[in-house]
């Protein structure tokens, strides 16, 4: 679920997603204090607002592929304005789709920036991507 929000100063529009934290596929948060089942707000730049008089304001972000309902993502987040609000780190660089359905299990970056360094992960096997993430954060998988 998402909604468009206008900043208090009226200069920015964000697309705010309500996200359920799930660890079933990636196992856990590598850093931070969210827990499985938490509902958090993830804000990304851009969107369209319609005012009471019918006029609109829009900020387009063609370099940032939007998240889609029903898909699974690994998110790199920075704290937002409240304890349950987050911003994606590096904007589109902090969002990776992780397929959980049958079929190819490869990572897709949400960055649409030409030659973005995070594109190196596009097409990477999900398990390899998560292994690299664990190595980078120096956090092993939990024992069950």
List the helices and strands and how they pair.
Elements: E1 2-6, E2 13-20, E3 39-45, E4 47-50, E5 56-59, E6 73-75, E7 77-79, E8 85-88, E9 95-97, E10 108-109, H1 126-137
Parallel strand pairs: 3-8
Antiparallel strand pairs: 1-2, 2-3, 4-5, 6-9, 7-8, 9-10
Primary descriptors:
mainly beta; 1 helix; 3-stranded antiparallel β-sheet; 144 residues; single chain; 5-stranded mixed β-sheet
Question: Can you give a write-up of this model?
Answer:
This protein has 144 residues and is mainly beta. It has one domain. It contains one helix and ten strands. The strands form three sheets. A five-stranded mixed sheet has the order 1-2-3-8-7, with no helix packed on it. It has a three-stranded antiparallel sheet with strand order 6-9-10, with no helix packed on it. A two-stranded antiparallel ribbon has the order 4-5. The model has no long low-confidence stretch (mean pLDDT 82).
């Amino acid at each position: 679920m998402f909604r468009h929000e206008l900043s208090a100063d009226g200069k920015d529009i964000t697309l705010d997603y309500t996200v359920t934290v799930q660890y079933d596929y990636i196992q856990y948060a590598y850093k931070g204090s969210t827990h499985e089942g938490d509902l958090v707000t993830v804000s990304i730049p851009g969107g369209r607002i319609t005012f009471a008089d019918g006029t609109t304001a829009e900020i387009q972000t063609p370099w940032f592929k939007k998240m889609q309902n029903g898909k699974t993502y690994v998110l790199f987040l920075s704290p937002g304005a409240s304890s349950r609000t987050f911003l994606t780190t590096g904007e589109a660089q902090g969002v990776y789709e992780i397929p959980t359905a049958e079929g190819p299990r490869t990572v897709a970056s949400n960055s649409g920036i030409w030659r973005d360094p995070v594109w190196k992960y596009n097409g990477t096997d999900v398990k390899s991507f998560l292994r690299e993430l664990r190595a980078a954060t120096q956090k092993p998988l939990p024992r069950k």
